[in-house]
TrEMBL record:
PANTHER family: 3-(3-HYDROXY-PHENYL)PROPIONATE/3-HYDROXYCINNAMIC ACID HYDROXYLASE, FAD-BINDING MONOOXYGENASE. The lineage of its organism: Bacteria, Bacillati, Actinomycetota, Actinomycetes, Mycobacteriales. Residues 400-419 are annotated as: Disordered. SUPFAM superfamilies: FAD/NAD(P)-binding domain. Keywords: Oxidoreductase. The keyword Oxidoreductase applies. This is 3-(3-hydroxyphenyl)propionate hydroxylase. It comes from Rhodococcus opacus M213. InterPro entries: FAD-bd, FAD/NAD-bd_sf, PheA/TfdB_FAD_monoxygenase. Coiled coil: none annotated. Residues 34-377 form the FAD-binding domain. GO terms for molecular function: 3-(3-hydroxyphenyl)propionate hydroxylase activity; FAD binding.
Length: 552
């Protein structure tokens, strides 16, 4: 057993394990210090650590800042992110102090308050949660932190900065430096993941090139906690005003966010001041007497992605892998999808259920997916970031005319994964989640009944009749539960669930299939009709994981 080293832990009293003897500084054992070392303890790093640790792997997280970042950054998440939170025990309806649903339109208007565009953020999404939420990121990260601290195989090193790594093909040696006294330590890990943000040093050391869209706009981001008596309508609005393009959205329970674009003649240092922020807020009736200014900070909104997300035993995720302007509210959501995609594949590799080559599919799947959201976000940004009067007038005329045609408001994209571990016409698409009940239990969302993500869902037991023991064993090792919507005769040991609202039956009918194989990240591996095709689909998954696992 490794000793406990009470290092600085962000002032939170976290017991942080050290693989080093405190007197000699030498390693306390000759084996790997961890299965996975994650650089960066933001939401993406935390989610990766949670998913991998709960799968039974030893995880170390190194973070250069001694304290958890206490100020909000992202404020929006979608239905799929809500399902991700559900998967780690943080369903949105269990933390109303952290996140609240937004059931309405995302309105874009010009300076004269003519509506140019409405993006439909209303209703319940296919993941079983509202399509849009606004949340307070520090409070969410505190929830993640509490879970991490409860897990025995998670080591958090705060105040330690990544300096470099060496990948010898069998392990990765990572050099860390104490941010206070300059002490240097080396840790040896099976895999290194850089979740270290937009200026990722891990990405730089990997030598990954960057696909840059050349999109650069500076914005002042202002977060405010209005006094209880200063109520605002629960709306999300973009004001496409050439005098000062502006965003106004909820910032989570009890908070509001404004974003103001830097005009061409202004300097960043001139706008990134509390006095300037208050002057801009005054037009909305916000001042120091009725609100607390939680922060003001300038950001350069960018768009692009790394071309390589894996090199040997080193991978990147989140802002280290991609950047997008915030207008679609998808930046954090994209990073959470990275974590879900990578975690189940890396866990399968660490468990010897899959060959390491499957990790190449992480980048190929995610780049194609995230690039669709980047394009959507850039398209929205081109609407608002105009300061030329003539260009803005042409924009207004065109968009008002398009609205007059009566076309439906656009919804955020639902892209398919790029080439990777999926097959067929529906492989790589996002699965639905709906309510079911098992053994006369109270109806609940399927993932709660299953105890997690990942399922082989069959219309009836007959569709599963030709599954082999090897098939069910591999599915179990991946955390994929086999369940039957209509048990009938021959359901055997498979979980029988009742399709409470009929949504799964309708979904299978829409897909014209009898069975769907949902990966642990909620995306379809494929679909099958009939028992032979279902067995062949699972065998194909086994072959995709590792050809040596497929028996003749």
């Amino acid at each position: 057993m490794r000793a406990i080293d009470r290092l600085r832990a962000g002032g939170r009293g976290i017991a942080t394990e050290s693989p080093y003897d405190l007197e000699s500084g030498e390693p306390m054992h000759s084996t790997l210090d961890s299965d996975v070392l994650i650089i960066g303890c933001g939401p993406v790093g935390k989610l990766l650590a949670l998913r991998l640790a709960k799968a039974g792997h030893r995880i170390t997280v190194a973070e250069r800042f001694a304290n958890t970042f206490a100020l909000p950054r992202a404020v929006t998440h979608d239905s799929e992110a809500a399902r991700i939170f559900q998967a780690v025990g943080l369903a949105p309806d269990t933390m109303p102090d952290v996140t609240e649903p937004y059931d309405g339109m995302y309105v874009w208007q010009n300076a004269g308050e003519d509506v140019l565009l409405e993006v439909d953020w209303s209703g319940i999404g296919e993941s079983g949660w509202y399509n849009t939420y606004f949340f307070h990121q520090p409070a969410l990260e505190d929830k993640f932190q509490e879970i991490l601290e409860s897990l025995p195989d998670v080591t958090i090193l705060r105040g330690w900065e990544y300096q470099g790594h060496q990948d010898d093909g069998n392990s990765v040696t990572v050099t860390l430096t104490d941010a206070t006294d300059g002490t240097t330590r080396e840790l040896t890990t099976g895999y290194l993941i850089g979740a270290d943000g937009a200026n990722s040093q891990v990405r730089t050391d990997m030598g990954s090139a960057w696909h840059d869209h050349g999109y650069f706009f500076d914005w002042l981001v202002v977060d405010v906690a209005p006094a209880p008596e200063r109520q605002f309508p629960h709306i999300a609005r973009q004001t496409c005003d050439i005098a000062r393009p502006c965003t106004m959205v909820p910032g989570g329970p009890g908070r509001r966010r404004w974003e103001f674009m830097r005009l061409p003649h202004e300097k960043i240092e001139g706008i990134d001041r509390a006095e300037f922020a208050w002057s801009l807020l005054s037009r909305y009736g916000i001042d120091p007497t009725n609100a607390q200014l939680e922060r003001h900070s300038t950001y350069t909104f960018q768009a692009g992605w790394a071309l390589d997300w894996r090199k040997g035993r080193v991978l990147i995720a989140g802002d280290a892998a991609h950047l997008m302007p915030p207008f679609a509210g998808q930046g954090l959501c994209a990073g959470l999808r990275d974590a879900m995609n990578l975690a189940w594949k890396l866990s399968a590799v660490l468990d010897d259920t899959a060959h390491p080559d499957i990790l190449d599919s992480y980048g190929s799947e995610r780049i194609a997916h995230v690039s669709a959201f980047i394009d959507f976000s850039m398209g929205l940004g081109k609407v608002i970031c105009l300061t030329d009067p003539d260009e803005a007038a042409r924009r207004d005329e065109r968009m008002i005319s398009e609205r007059a045609d009566g076309s439906a408001p656009p919804a955020p994209p639902r892209p398919r994964l790029g080439t990777g571990l999926h097959r067929g016409a529906h492989g790589g698409t996002l699965s639905i989640q709906a309510r079911v009940d098992a053994e006369s239990s109270t109806p609940r969302l399927l993932d709660d009944i299953l105890g997690g993500a990942g399922a082989l869902i069959a219309r009836n037991a007959q569709a599963l009749a030709q599954l082999s023991d090897e098939d069910t064993d591999v599915l179990a090792r991946l955390g994929v539960t086999v369940c039957v919507l209509d048990g009938g005769n021959g359901a055997g040991n498979f979980l029988q669930v009742r399709d409470t609202d009929g949504r799964y039956v309708c979904w299978l009918e829409d897909l014209t299939t009898d069975a769907v194989l949902v990966r642990p990240d909620f995306y379809l591996f494929g679909t099958a009709t009939g028992p032979a095709e279902t067995a062949e689909m699972v065998a194909a998954l086994r072959g995709a994981l590792d050809p040596t696992l497929v028996t003749s």
